[in-house]
Design goal:
- With 923 residues, the protein is mostly beta strands.
- It is built from 11 helices and 42 strands.
- The strands form 9 sheets. The chain has a 22-stranded antiparallel β-barrel. The protein has a 5-stranded mixed beta sheet with strand order 1-6-7-4-5, with no helix packed on it. A 3-stranded mixed beta sheet has the order 13-16-17, with no helix packed on it.
- A hairpin with a 2-residue loop joins strand 24 and strand 25.
- Helix 5 runs antiparallel to helix 6.
- The longest helix has 17 residues.
- The protein is globular.
- The N terminus is likely disordered.
- Its main location: membrane.
Length: 923
């Protein structure tokens, strides 16, 4: 079947080129009279946002686009894109198409980009195949313009102070509260009065008996740095045009006791167009990114995971040779490096940071685009053909050197005479390798081509547009990962009468190697229409309306972007050897999974109804769309149907169904007051999805059903308060999550069976926002400019489940532990009691830990002054001086941590507040 599929693609490829059907990279043609729902990003606004990751700058920039930032180290805190919300109960991310092929948007600079469009409905997305159904971010890079010359240089530098860092207790307060936790658990206090006094008067991080460490203070700086420089060249003649962009971006990390992590990145792009003859134009584009990142032995994820969980008295950083020499058989000299650790730890974070070695990471990508454009008007007026081919190569290499110095745990005990004695136990030995080793090495490649023929003609009151296109892509990666191959043939027809009535239809045949047999291909379609109401006679006297258009479209699209490979085939693997006495047998053959040869494509039926227009002499513009999508045949495993029969070996089936609907809107007003020009805009996206079908049982209580609720619903227990403070312990239904007592969370018995377990979980909210919004304001007065962007998110619930909120076990305590409930020590406390155990009763999803995650953030501000060189005395036409700020403040009911990144500063780098200054010069 694979051979027939390859023959199909090769045959179609040859046929298309034989017929002269060729394509452009940017197939989605911008039409002012389009029937599609498309949002556009203002590129001038995007360039005002200083960031290492372009994806972070897109938040709040366009209706329908939802950007959710992630937690990560420098260069890794990118955002995930969603277009119009969640489409299924699996992967709902949108794809990014850059110059015709799927590419990472964080690999390019905003200075390289000509335009960004958000393709939201069926007629707009269908051209981009089986991965485009969740939405498309379409990026076009800059191309040269004939008889124009642009030379632009930009320089920018700034600092990035951290915001909303978690706070943890010192050794004295920790030890005091840990003693309380011991008593709560019915055991003797661990720390004596002498210990508490020792911690109160600790000498600091190297106190042998009573260390006291503020890890965030000891290991972290207060701010990172940001660096950027770009140069742009654009121009050409009628015969050849070019666009060249070269840029450098860099940043330094927060590490304090070792060399700071350092990122340096160079982007370069050259787009060239050559007019070979009157009917043939060739294009050649080359782009690349080279990134070098260096840090010590500890990456950001490890560093923050450690400092957010280590006890403040875990161990002294260093042990002086004179304090350990001769004890417990240890022999050292004065030059020895010896580090402390604890019984539960073998590593010493200070040793790893300061002396543990180094890590070097290299990331290189290259992108090549080759294209031909034919103007075939000599055959038929309005006939053109284009061909476009892309080759991308991405390589990643990480090398590291890891040093280890001796670490010793320190235990205190009393000898026969009652004197305190220290016992040192070696946990790690000296190991100093000489060379770096390769810890990771990956390469992946993307190849694609697109071919199409266009016909466009106008006569009398009629406008006709027709397009036939084929698109093929393949994605390859080193290792055992299966290549992804997709092909899509599309025919589009568009008809307009009198620039007033528009009809468009699209047919598409999609193919994917994720399916087999007749199911390998999916036939999609989309149809739409638009009515330019403002051109009707009855609107001529309505002076307030400049343009007004009603548009509606419907489509049936296939989706295979989240489908695993070979789900249609039963797979086996070689297992362990078995013994059959008196001789030894061979290896077993183990079942991996049962296949389902009848597996079909996931698909969506989509409706879009929109109104767009301009009013009051074009001062007001608006675009409002209602959308409704029914996603069906979602692939999953029906565990309810098969679990009792075949255990875990369950075939994939088409079992899911999700309905998603909402509104996206963009409104903008621009005008001037005297010499002050102002422009204010609001974009909003409201989405609400509902799971309609899944593998869920029908005979469970309504309050714990997933069907009928959002796919991002958070389920948990309904908290009634704390035992002993809000709820009487005696007579309360039994809770099945381990031992509990006064100070633990009491839960509601929702099904009335006098037992609280997982049958009592209910809807606590949803993890995905229902509404996202961007609000921007631009003011210009003579040479001065002010730009402000705010973003808002509502309808999202955060579960406070990190180490900052769950203070239990043997980890350190956050400052919230001071507010724990204790009937004697703190009867007004609002947090659960402390325990030395895992706190199984309290450490689980419940309404006690749920918090409204809505927020408003001042996302971006730029204050600038542009000096025009009217006299010509200086080099350059104009100079723009600017100061920029990002993430300046956030308003939210959550005050301790960042409401948008609840794990920032705990599992990886914190949220930054960026302040930069710079200059841009046009020559």
């Amino acid at each position: 079947m694979r051979n027939s599929y390859n023959r199909f693609l090769k045959g179609l490829f040859a046929a298309i080129f034989f017929l002269g059907i060729t394509s452009v990279a940017n197939a989605q043609k911008e039409q002012p009279d389009s029937v599609s729902a498309v949002s556009r990003v203002n590129m001038d606004h995007l360039k005002k946002y200083p960031t290492l990751q372009l994806s972070n700058a897109l938040q709040g920039q366009a209706a329908g686009l939802i950007a959710i930032p992630n937690v990560g180290g420098i260069g890794y805190d990118n955002s995930t894109f969603y277009v119009r919300g969640l489409h299924n109960n699996g992967t709902s991310e949108a794809i990014v198409i850059i110059d015709g092929i799927k590419r990472p948007i964080d690999d390019i600079l905003p200075e390289e980009i000509e335009s960004i469009q958000i393709l939201k409905d069926a007629t707009a997305k269908i051209m981009y195949g089986e991965q485009a159904t969740n939405g498309v971010i379409l990026v076009r890079t800059k191309r040269g313009k004939a008889n124009e010359r642009v030379i632009r240089v930009g320089l920018e530098y700034g600092i990035q102070p951290v915001t909303r860092m978690p706070e943890f207790l010192d050794s004295y307060n920790y030890a005091t509260l840990f003693n309380e936790a011991c008593v709560n658990d019915g055991i003797q206090p661990f720390y004596s009065a002498t210990d508490l006094e020792g911690y109160k008067n600790s000498k600091g991080v190297n106190d042998l008996r009573y260390p006291n460490v503020d890890y965030y203070k000891e290991f972290l700086r207060d701010a990172s740095t940001f660096r950027k420089a770009t140069i742009e060249l654009n121009g050409g003649t009628e015969k050849a045009t070019y666009a060249v962009t070269v840029g450098y971006t860099g940043s330094s990390g927060l590490e304090k006791v070792s060399d700071r992590s350092n990122l340096n990145r160079i982007n370069a792009r050259g787009n060239l167009d050559l007019r070979i003859t009157d009917f043939l134009t060739a294009s050649a584009d080359v782009a690349g990114r080279i990134e070098k990142k260096d840090w010590g032995a500890v990456d950001g994820a490890t560093l923050f995971s450690e400092i957010s969980t280590l006890r403040p008295n875990e161990y002294p950083f260093m042990i002086a040779p004179e304090d350990i020499n001769g004890r417990d058989g240890v022999t050292t000299d004065e030059s020895s490096l010896i580090f402390g650790t604890s019984v539960r730890k073998t590593n010493n974070l200070y040793m790893d940071m300061a002396y543990g070695g180094n890590t070097s990471e290299r990331y290189v990508n290259s992108q090549t685009n080759l294209g031909l454009k034919f103007d075939l008007k000599s055959l038929t007026e309005g006939l053109t053909a284009n061909a476009y081919m892309t080759f991308d190569n991405y390589s990643y290499l990480r090398q590291q050197l890891r040093n280890a110095y001796p670490t010793y745990s320190i235990e205190r005990y009393l000898d026969d005479e009652g004197e305190e004695v220290l016992r040192f136990t070696e946990r790690k030995k000296l190991n100093l390798p000489k060379k770096q080793s390769i810890s990771s090495n990956d390469t992946y490649r993307n190849f694609g081509w697109r071919a199409n023929v266009n016909y466009e003609h106008s006569f009398d009151l009629h406008d006709v547009l027709a397009e036939a296109a084929f698109r093929y892509t393949t994605e390859e990666k080193t290792g055992n990962t299966q290549d992804v191959k997709n092909g899509t043939f599309t025919f589009r027809g568009n008809y307009a009468y009198n620039k007033r009535y528009f009809v468009e239809g699209v047919l598409s045949a999609m193919g994917s190697n994720r399916f087999s047999g007749s199911n390998r291909y999916f036939f999609a379609y989309a149809i739409g229409g638009a009515w330019m109401i403002s051109k009707e006679d009855f609107m001529k006297d309505v002076k307030a309306v400049n343009s007004l258009k009603l548009k509606i479209n419907y489509g049936h699209l296939g989706y295979a972007g989240n489908t695993g490979h070979f789900l249609y085939r039963t797979n086996w693997k070689n297992g362990d050897k078995f013994e059959h006495k008196p001789s030894t047998g061979g290896p077993t053959t183990d079942l991996v999974r049962y296949g389902n040869p009848d597996l079909k494509w996931e698909y969506s039926n989509e409706l879009n109804i929109g109104v767009e227009g301009t009013f009051f002499n074009n001062r007001l513009s608006a675009d409002v769309n209602y959308f409704r999508e029914m996603r069906k045949n979602i692939i999953g495993k029906n565990t309810v149907k098969y679990a009792a029969v075949v255990g875990d070996f369950i075939p994939a089936e088409n079992i899911g169904e999700v309905m998603n609907q909402g509104i996206d809107a963009q409104v903008r007003w621009q005008d001037k007051i005297g010499e002050i020009h102002y422009n204010v805009g609001v974009n909003l996206t409201f989405t609400k999805n509902k799971l309609r079908k899944s593998d869920e049982l029908d005979n469970i209580e309504d309050y714990r059903k997933s069907v009928g609720r959002s796919t991002s619903t958070i389920f948990g227990l309904q908290a009634e308060g704390l035992f002993g403070k809000d709820v009487q312990l005696a007579g309360h239904p039994l809770q099945s999550y381990g031992a509990y007592q006064a100070g633990d969370i009491a839960y509601a018995d929702l099904n009335g069976d006098n037992m609280i377990n997982d049958n009592d979980v209910t809807d606590l909210g949803q993890s995905f926002p229902t509404t996202t919004m961007g609000i921007d304001l631009s003011l210009n007065y003579k040479g001065f400019g002010l730009y402000i962007l705010g973003t808002a998110t509502t309808g999202v619930t955060n579960i406070l489940s990190s180490s900052y909120y769950w203070n239990n076990g043997l980890d350190g305590y956050s400052v919230l532990a001071l507010d724990r409930y204790h009937p004697v020590n703190n009867p007004t406390g609002t947090q659960p009691r402390l325990t030395t155990t895992s706190g199984a009763n309290n450490s689980r999803n419940s309404s006690f830990w749920s918090e409204n995650g809505s927020f408003f953030r001042l996302k971006n501000v730029e204050l600038s002054y542009t000096l025009a060189n009217k006299t010509g005395k200086f080099i350059g036409k104009d100079f723009k001086f600017f100061v920029r700020g990002t993430d300046l403040f956030v308003l939210s009911g959550i005050k301790d941590l960042d409401p948008e990144r609840m794990l920032s500063g705990l599992t990886n780098y914190p949220t930054y507040r960026t302040i930069t200054g710079g200059i841009s010069i046009n020559f």
